[in-house]
Amino acid sequence: MNRQLTAIVEREGEGYVALCTELDIASQGDSVTEARNNLAEALALFHESAPPEEIDQRLQCEA
Q1: pTM of the entire predicted model
Q2: pLDDT tens-digit series, residues 10-42
Q3: How far apart are CA 9 and CA 58, in angstroms?
């Protein structure tokens, strides 16, 4: 299943924080691009390791 997720990137101090609100996963980086890429990696790792039930539960909390 393909699903479009939201990434909110905000400046925090000297760097940037990226948050996926649908799954409540965040990452950071020294630039917007780095924060976004790190978030994409964190999301991929989450999808590889999380049980399907947890993914569904987090996505349904957003609905």
Answers
A1: 0.86
A2: 999 999 999 999 999 999 999 999 999 999 999
A3: 20
